[in-house]
Design a protein that fits this description.
255 residues, mainly alpha, 65% helix, globular
Amino acid sequence: MNPTNQTALLDFVTRLGDNSLIAGHRLSEWCSNAPYLEEDIAMTNMALDFVGASRILLTYAGEVEGKGRTEDDFAFVRKNEEFRNALLLEQPNGDFAVTTAKQFFYATFNYLLFSELQKSKDETLAGFAAKALKEVSYHLRHANEWVLRLGDGTAESKTRMQNGINEVWRFTGDLFATTEGDLLLEQEGIIPNVPELKTKWYEMISDILEKATLAIPDLNAFQQKGSREGKHTEHLSYIVSEMQSIARVYPGVKW
């Protein structure tokens, strides 16, 4: 692989790893705080799914880079602006409906992305996507069920679910943002055309929202972007600070 494509692959794999890392961190904050015990366990297990995926992806990022960096280096040493996770995932949990909205949008995106990514000419990415798709399918089913339950439930749950959707909608467009490097990887058959997934994504979420008797957001409404260039909301800095606290006090510590 030529250096340009290698850099593009590193950026893409790091992005996927960061998505999983930050999503897992946010979900882990629900441990002991979920609405009831069974859901507490479910959310914690999904957080572990994300963290496990991030370990695989960030390890592969180190291999692609070839400079000896490990998964821990990517997670615990980088600065805020070096993270490439989607803006949606760093947003605060809010109430249960806000977290459900985030999971709903992200799980739908991941399902479509990994379904295509398992066809990648990059054997590592293809293998990862094929295995991760099983977990993502559960994440999607779980999120869909909660959107339906809350949206078509009581007046209170409906209002909260609609508010949650409206609150995080402006960050969903960032999921589909691409770089020049992505175009190179697409031409090599390594990744799919991510923007083309947006139409199917919108159809899928619209179907669930309609069944849940919720208003469907405007696809052309303003969308906040910037994660591809390392431009994040202030919320990421708090996540990184907490996540890296031990590594900063004890550099290079192993456990």
